[in-house]
Amino acid sequence: MCAAPVLEGTNYPSLTSGHPESSCTDILIVGLHVKVYGLDEIKGSKLPIAAVVATHGRCNKKEQMAYFAHGLLGAAVDAGKGKSRRRDVIVVTMDQRNHGSRLKDKKANLSYDENEHHLIDMAACITGGCHDVSLLMDFLAAYLFPDGERVIDEFIPTGISLGGNLTWRLLREEPRIRIAIPIIGLPFSSFGPYLRARAEAMGLTWAPPLAPPSIQHLTDVPLEAERYTGKKILSIHGAADELVPIRQGQKDLDGIKALIGDGLEVWVVDGVGHAVTAEMAKRTGEWVWRWALSEQSEQGVEETKSRY
């Protein structure tokens, strides 16, 4: 019997699931080009806003995330039909460091076989991406609503691959984050081990200069599962993903699950490799509705004091 085919590579247009295009507003935050989806659709409302920050994967760009944004927003609308809501929602995208409109060095985005600095570049991109998201959290409302006419009181990171790893680091390090959906990424405590496994699979030695001691604080990271207490996390993985395999992060996922229970849901999709599907975008939108938008969204979520 032939094995079932495995989906490898993302068909971005399919991520809309047939939902119409959302409005798109372009802004610059001190030179950082940001796209905001769904802003026109919530004009006239006075509800607070949840901003979903959707980050793309390695070697991709923010324009591809437009399809993901349309599908996510459409799914959130569908989930809330006929129900009262406590927040409106928008989706925000931007290019990762050294990607898209910010690209300066193509080699820096490649893996070990073409880039001896792969570990350093990945660590720097994740760290810089977290800084960018925190900057956005600090200033997005000021740029969108300079008169204070609306409030953004919830930021929800989601991301694909590199963006998924970034999302996990935000969950660990950014105290204002309490809801997140990392997709085909691993907890940041798994970052070093899975990059080491990737290097060793290519016959490389995990030692300087490949793994510099100066970034050991980023590659030898303890789990510290208590950092995830009170958060609501949907971690999405392809069962056949060999680029960022869930087995490389399973121990950490189990450790987080053991502490926060239903606060972490791990969804492993059969027949999918390192790719995103329309159903993943749909489930992301439904998670946003459940924990950020619905009238019942505060139930079971530990309040984080003085977040903004």
UniProtKB/TrEMBL annotation:
Species, as recorded: Dioszegia hungarica
Molecular functions per Gene Ontology: hydrolase activity
Stored InterPro entries: AB_hydrolase_fold (IPR029058)
Signal sequence interval, chain numbering: none
Name of the protein in its database record: Alpha/Beta hydrolase protein
Keyword Hydrolase found: yes
Gene3D superfamilies: alpha/beta hydrolase (3.40.50.1820)
Keyword terms: Hydrolase
Coiled coil regions, renumbered to chain: none
